[in-house]
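Supplementary Methods, section 5.1.

A reviewer requested that the exact input to the structure prediction be made available. We therefore reproduce it here, unchanged from the version used in the analyses.
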Amino acid sequence: MEAYSYAGGHHRPTRGPVTTDSLMPNIPENKTMDVTFHVALSKKKWDTPQGKSLMLIVTNEDEEIAGHTLRMTDETDSKYLEFATSFTIAEPSHFTSLEYKYVFLLDDGSKVPEHRHGCALPSAKRHLNLNKCSGTDKTYHRYDGIVRNKKSKKVFENNDTKLKNDMEKAAQFFIRKINIASSSNSFQGLNGEQLILRLEMLKKGMEEVYWGANENGRKERSSLLKQIMTTAFKPLLEDIRRNCHKEEDTRLMMLINATLVAYCLVKQIVELSDDDKELMCKALLPRMDQEKKCPDLIVLNKAFPNTMSQMISALHSLSKTMICRPGKLSWIYIMPLIHFMDKKCIPWQEAPDDINHDAKVPHWWGIVLGEHKLDFETFKSVRIERYAYKYT
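The structure derived from this sequence is encoded token-by-token as follows.
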């Protein structure tokens, strides 16, 4: 990727892989991180013959520090083009916020600022809070939504409606590019912590770009965003419905993704029906091999080396949700895996005869899980106690 020089020269739209320039050349490499910026542009409004280029300009107050040409990285979508650029910046310990803006550069050297719904000034700057940035291998992906050079012609739409519509289109565009491992792609997609990070970065980008501190319509947009991001998991849910995990490698891959879905539910990244939650629970039932070992634990430890405690908490949250549903016993499928992951017992361990279902607080050695223990007294009720707890 080439940085833009203000000394002159014309920049035509470019295609190709995104490479990285350094914005902080004097800072040691181990104190820097790469940021990749992704935007979507309407195919109808991108008029290549006029010689437009899309620029990301880093600013400090009113001073333009550096400019970077965005490259077209995908044109396969029917309505939108994806443009991206990457550069190296200092880690948050050196500074906490990056100020930047997008402009369209024409052949005559003039610059047209992007138009942003709800902004009083057409050249309103964007901000990236670096303290909230955490990526994979020191790479953070910033999803900046749809960039446009003209004001919408729909004069009767208020700004909140325009923001919601833009967010919906941008989220649908970018979520299709997050390739989750499933039978539809021979399980060659993202999984584990890499997938978690990518989903969280997309969610954070959409929230900061499309509502930020503006509370108007936040609840509606948040609900819509969860619905859109949930669509990324449809192939996975279909695999579980069709019971496409007869092969062990396939089953273990879906176990990873089912654990990840539980985490996404806790973080309100996705939303699922009770029926889908039951599917997740069933997919989380571990299996033992002929050597009396549990391969599920090995796979999960590899997939979530830095977030295992968060995964355990997520599974507890999913089990609590299902305990509160009268007649739903699918939470029992999760309990063995929770016990193993939390290291409160090991596969094939003899269960002690220590149980009392009739006590006010049901007692069973398997629910004494220390830090992550389930509060069965809270969830115990006349409606479900005899039906559920009796058979645990």
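The chain has two domains: 1-151, 155-345. These observations are discussed further in the main text.
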